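Worked problem 6 (solution included).
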Amino acid sequence: MLVYPSGLDLSSSHLRFLTARIREHRCAIGSRWRRLSAGRQALLAADRPFYSGKHKKHGMNVQVLADPAGRLLWASPALPGAVHDIRAAREHGILDALTSANLDCWADKDYRGAGLAARVPYRGRWDNLSEGQQAVNRSQAKIRALVEPAVAILKTWRLLRKLRCSTTRITSLVQAVLTLHLTCSN
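Solution. The predicted structure is:
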């Protein structure tokens, strides 16, 4: 999972318009005070679905598939940061595709409940796991370490680390980076 900060494009005239509407609404409901001014609240309009409680910041959820050599193969369309990894994988049809293709997939603990589509490590504190479970988790960590460079490839693109554009454009940007990476790696 990749989570990147993002913001909505908002011109200053739109910001002033939205600020005025928020002030009017506050007057209409008789609100006496708020932690945020109307202008600051306008900057946060419609951002709630993009807030990730896990990371405590706004972001996007992009699912990534890589081959055993760590080469990036596919990146999903971006979803709001509040979307859990297993839900994103189900929405994009990743789990069904892996199951029907009978492919082995190693995933992190966020994919617990994926069924046969993804192998996940045993849950629990390391010292509470049996020797066999620890060995399985160690071997799985070694396999997953091979594909971590694929995630790092996307994180090295500064464009994706500091997104300040409309959320509708993020999928296009991720796909463009993926295309550039695949073109350069061939």
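Discussion: The longest strand covers residues 72-75.
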